[in-house]
Amino acid sequence: MSARPLPLRILGTGEYRPVRILDSREFDARWGRSEGWTRRHAGVASRRVAGPDEAASAMAAAAARVALDRAGLAASELDAVLCANSVGEQAIPCTAALVHRRLGLQDSGITAYDVNATCLGFLVALDHAALAIAAGRWKRVLIVAAEVASAGLDPDDPDTAPLFGDGAAAVVVDGGDGDGAPALLAARLETYSAGADFCQVESGGTRIRIHEDPEAYVAGARFRMQGKATYRMAARLLPGFLERLFGDAGCALQDLAAFVPHQASAKALAHLEVALGLPATKLVRVLEDRGNQMAASLPVALNAAVEQGRLQRGDLVALVGSGAGLSFGGAVLRW
Fold this sequence. Notes:
- The protein is an alpha+beta fold.
- It folds into 2 domains: 6-174, Thiolase/Chalcone synthase (Peroxisomal Thiolase, Chain A, domain 1), CATH 3.40.47.10; 183-334, Thiolase/Chalcone synthase (Peroxisomal Thiolase, Chain A, domain 1), CATH 3.40.47.10.
- Helices cover 31% and strands 22% of the residues.
- It is built from 9 helices and 14 strands.
- The protein has a 5-stranded mixed beta sheet with strand order 1-9-14-13-12, with helices on both faces.
- α3 (56-71) packs across α4.
- The longest helix has 23 residues, at 227-249.
- It is globular.
- The model has no long low-confidence stretch (mean pLDDT 93).
């Protein structure tokens, strides 16, 4: 059964890229590998690394300003600011409040809060915004995602250190203007918690307490990933998930103008292209010069598709990814 479309129009997108570029050849030199080994292994030629003055909220605000400018709006015209980071800038307050202040909204009373679904946070926030707009609660919403993955990586882990990158992206949405207008045709999130241990940052919550075991707390602050197990589970479950998503949307894969995936890894992108029979012209890739940017990955890739002129009004576009949990998420939009 097809889902009921929700009015949703993307008015503007934006991206912020940190200043420092970390080339994969630096990993080759660090690990004594031949030049090009890291690029082949991770599928990433370079990625950006945030500096001390590039906090997550600062990057998110910079991307937001670009999106707002493209939308022709001032921050004061928003009804809500949703932040979709996997890892917040700090435990309390939420990162959205920090972005809100950087945008000059500190005395506005405009709603701001975080939505955390790890790498799928942007999709959940987009669905949340569409539901609130359809209910008449909001008119215009800013969604931001900014990640400083480098803060939690083990620099000696060849599977994660060269794969992830830092950065931010933002979108501004409203409800469009009538029948046949841009819409969220379907959104779906499925969680299979049998894979909950596959991707973890164990510290930062209440289970590991710094005053009880400081060493365990420091060790738990590093990101750990069981890459092979994650890939196997995703490869097994993703086809069925996509079938249900497109069934909800009432369209088929071949109807899409663009397929925007979470930039999980080169292997995952290659699997998608082959398994789905996607033409290279439809699959949006930004992994090679950005790395996996966690929750920022999907809006960064969407912004790239917009800047490349790959989406025209009326086109169908799908955003699909996976995240820690293990969860799968997707949305189909009429642009």
